[in-house]
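Protocol step 4 of 5: obtain the predicted structure for the target chain.
Materials: sequence only (see below). No template structures provided, no constraints applied. The aim of this step is simply to have a reference model before the mutagenesis design in step 5. Sequence pasted as it appears in the construct record:
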Amino acid sequence: RPYELQERVNFEDTLDITKFIDPGHLKDDEYKYRLVAVIVHSGPTLREGHNFAYVRASQIGCQQQASHDDPTWFCASDESITEVSLKEVLECQAYILFYERVEQPKAKPVVEEHPPTGH
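Step 4 output (structure tokens):
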């Protein structure tokens, strides 16, 4: 019989799992993930209650989010969508967490430039 955990689970908006990767499989990449959504179940049992979601906006309208460091979050329920703070998201009693891998910028090769010697 499935049951719902009643204790709150602590989670963060970013995860760095590099230290858990087998060193033999490590590349030059970092293994960082950012929180993109949280499903919350409120109710007495798994079969009763209400589900809603907190969702990180990647763009608002036609505008791309300016920064991944200060995201906009929304709470989406049956009848409404409202803007919320990251603090509210991180304090919720999460049922399911969704993370996406953060793409690390690839290092550009260093090209040394030498001034002309005048020959």
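Step 4 remarks: The mean pLDDT is 82. The helical segments are 86-90.
Proceed to step 5.
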